[in-house]
TrEMBL record:
GO terms for cellular component: nucleus. Keywords: Nucleus, Transcription, Transcription regulation. This is YEATS domain-containing protein. Residues 44-188 form the YEATS domain. The keyword Transmembrane helix does not apply. It comes from Lactuca virosa. Transmembrane segments: none annotated. Residues 1-37 are annotated as: Disordered.
Amino acid sequence: MPQHSSKLHSSNQQPDVTPSTPKSQRTKMVRSSDDNEKKNLVKKLKDIEFSVPIVYGNIAFWLGKKASEYQSHRWTVYVRGATNEDLSVVVKRVVFQLHSSFNNPMRVVESPPFELSESGWGEFEIAITLHFHNDVCEKPLHLYHHLKLYPEDESGSMSVKKPVVVESYDEVVFSEPSEVLFARVQNHPAVIVPRLPPGIILPPVSVEDADKRKKFDPKDNPLTQWFTNFSEADELLKLAAARQQVQAQIARVRRQLSLIDGQHQQHSKPPNDL
C-alpha cells in the first residue's frame, strides 16, 4: 500500500544520506492510587527508583534500482536499549501504530527485538506504545516518532549502502519498585539501579526470569552497526562541553562590559585643575 506523506519527494531527488541529531529526554513513570492499592501487599523499596535508558527511531534504506514510485525505501522502526540491550526485563510488548494506508496498521510486537520493518515512499508519524510487565508499571508509555526516509540535506546522491538513521533518547524512571522487581533488574545491562541501603536482602531471581535473558542476543541484530552510540559518559561529555561554552561566553561578555565601564569612567572623569 502507498504511504501518504506531508513531504513529497520526486524520483529524481537525490539527497545525501546522513544521520540526524538524536534527541534526549527523561520520563518518570508514576503509579496511580489504584496501582498502589493493588500492590499494597507487595513489599516495596521506599524512596528508591531505577531508570531504563531507551532509544526509539527508524533506519531507512533506499532501494536504488529496485525503487518504484510507491516502494522507494525499506525501513525499520524500533525501540531498543541505549546500547541495544534487551528491554524485555521491563517491557512486555510494543505497539506500533502506522499510517491508515497500511494493511493492519496497528502492529503488536510481543518479544524482542521490539522492531517492525516495512517498505514505502512516504514519511508520517508513528505512535509507539510501550506496555510494561504488571509488576513494573500498569500505565503504558506513549511515544511518537516521525518516520524519516530522506536526509535533512537534500543535495548530492543517495546510497543503498548507508541508511538514514533518526533516533531519540529517553530515560524512563520507575519509582518505589517491589523487592522482587528490583532483584530482577539489578544486574541487567539495560537498567541503571542505585546502591541499596545496608540491611536490605533481596529475594532470589526466579529461574524463569534468568532463562528469559538468554533467549535474545542483541549482537545478532544486523542493524546494530547503524545504531547511534548512546552512553552516560557521552552525555556527560556533551553537557561539560556545553557548560564550558556557556562559561566562556559569560566571561567574554563580562570582559566587554568591564572594558566599556572603564572607558565610560575615563570619559566622565573631571579635568585636573591647573
